[in-house]
Amino acid sequence: MPVLEARQIRKQYRMGEHQVDALAGIELQVEKGEFMAIMGPSGSGKSTLLHLLGGLDVPTEGNIILAGQSLDRLSEKKATLVRRHNVGFVFQFFNLLPMLSAEENILLPVIIDGKDPRKYKDRLDSLLELVNLMDRRHHKPDQLSGGEQQRVAIARALITQPAILLADEPTGNLDSKTGTAIMELLRRSCEELEQTVIVVTHDARAAAYAQRVIFLRDGLVVKELCPDPSQTWNQKLRDIIDTMEELES
Q: Which residue(s) pair with 30 in the sheet?
């Protein structure tokens, strides 16, 4: 069973007297442990789709099946709990609380869920090691670089062991070298933790780390790349760039 499904998803907005079709009938399945990237021109519906997949918004039509549960059949409270227990989010703007240390920010979802953070010590330590922040665990956000803050955000998203990690432009505010380190980290979480990862990005270099890349245009999936495992990263990158140029021409 797929860990996440989108069934004929449509999303419409009103802008004054006009109706905007942000998504126009998306069909999508994501398997456990898959690393998928979503790409497309500006305004193609990438972030809208990510928010719907994570239950942060509801579709105008269609349904999201998250961890085997149909979100349209759940109350708002129940849907919130399903999202909280199954989805971790990483955003372009790290959204860390400035008064908390790195490890306190990582443990925040546990505290919000009413659990004892002391029971998560081993999990916390393993994540700090994964994101290479053991020696920065007591530093506050203003004492960390942008890349370190994003690594804190990734560890925070993983602390509750969610079925799915959703990342919206996770390298958007980072330089090329740091962005590469973040994508390597996401790939490691997929391989070592069997984490399902879905990344929305405009950056072909970031998308080249994914096992599958889907391309949106005008609210529809118009192309999909499933690179052969034997392909090099540079070959994947070239295919992604060629596809984006084709879509934007």
A: 4
Edge-first strand order for the sheet with 220-225 is: 87-90, 164-168, 196-200, 35-39, 212-217, 220-225
Domain 4-248 falls under CATH 3.40.50.300: yes
75 phi/psi in degrees, rounded to 5: -70, 165
Provide the residue ranges of all domains of the chain, joining segments of one domain with +: 4-248
The helix, strand and coil proportions of the chain, stated in percent and rounded to the nearest 5, come to 40, 25, 35
What is the distance between the alpha carbons of residues 72 and 56, in angstroms, rounded to a whole number? 13
Residue 5: HSE in the Cβ half-sphere, 13 Å Cα cutoff: 13
Q: Can you tell me the mean pLDDT for 189-202? A: 88
Contact between 215 and 207 (Cβ < 8 Å): no
**The pLDDT of residue 86:** 87
Task: Output the six-digit token pair for 224.
Answer: 């999909």
Q: What is the DSSP letter of 165?
A: E
At residue 50, φ and ψ (nearest 5 deg) are -60, -45
Contact 123, 116 (CB under 8 A): no
Q: Does the pLDDT of residue 151 top 80, yes or no? A: yes
User: What number of H helices and E strands is found in the chain?
Assistant: 8, 10
Whether the per-residue pLDDT at 117 is higher than 80: the answer is yes
Question: For residues 125 and 131, is the Cβ–Cβ distance under 8 A?
Answer: no
Partnered with residue 37 across adjacent β-strands are: 199, 213
Return all residues near 18 (Cβ < 8 A) that are at least 6 apart.
none
For the entire predicted model, the pTM comes to 0.89
